[in-house]
């Protein structure tokens, strides 16, 4: 039987750190250096699952990735109908996977993975995660499910997944709704499904925009936000609780919302923003009346990514783009 083709795009990250760098670890630390071919060659059982086409797309730690890199990656993935796996560092997998979901209008599977334990450590998880990602990419149930994230033999939806620990192999979870599937004996056991999100066209993203993410804390008066002035094109605010800010900040945000899109998400991590419960200054009713957009249950970092991509695409109806997250 002819095996399916899976393209593996390597971007660097912990999964790509080389064992030879261990000699320098005390002095200089590990850096990504393993090639896409080396990653694939380290997992011989991949050849039993698919015909692998390895692509060295970037070779950087994940904090070095830019939105432009991910737009370029989306264009490269869109140009080929094959199932796709992306390997990268874990620090920004939440944003990369969600950005790809916002940019890819296709049913062919895209699965993002990486490693929490580098190859110099006992129990390095990179090879197992790569195998699971390829197994998920060739599974019929993955088609039309949006971008997926494979870690620790679990499959998560890009829109839900979060990195909840700095070091454990089990760092990735979906606290909003749970995992979509689990890898068992090389099979993908599905527990639930999600529909693909509407997508922007990555080929039409021409403008560079600045969209900061501001986390609200106790006693924040918003004065520092005012100093951003004309330097930003949009703003995402990680609010307290169900969508609340201190009263002085509500005034500042209202002024900003008259000029740029201001999107509200919750710093709580799970649960949607409220719509019509609290009527005090800085509550969700007050903020909505000042022209701000709710991100629903979408996490702040992903809300920022969606707003940035939308503004890069020249989208003007920002509330419509967040409707799938209510």
What do you see in this structure?
By secondary structure, the chain is α/β, with parallel strands linked by helices. The chain has two domains: 5-190, L-asparaginase, N-terminal domain (Rossmann fold); 208-325, 3-Layer(aba) Sandwich (Rossmann fold). Helix content is 25%, strand content 19%. The protein has helices spanning 36-41, 67-78, 93-103, 126-138, 223-226, 247-257, 284-289, 300-312, 318-321, and strands spanning 5-12, 51-60, 83-87, 110-113, 147-151, 154-157, 162-163, 172-173, 181-184, 187-190, 213-215, 235-239, 262-266, 293-294. The chain has an eight-stranded mixed β-sheet, sandwiched between helices. It has a four-stranded parallel β-sheet with strand order 11-12-13-14, sandwiched between helices. Helix 2 packs across helix 3 (93-103). The relative contact order is 0.11.
State the main characteristics.
single chain, about 325 residues, alpha/beta, Rossmann fold, 2 domains, 8-stranded mixed β-sheet, 4-stranded parallel β-sheet, elongated
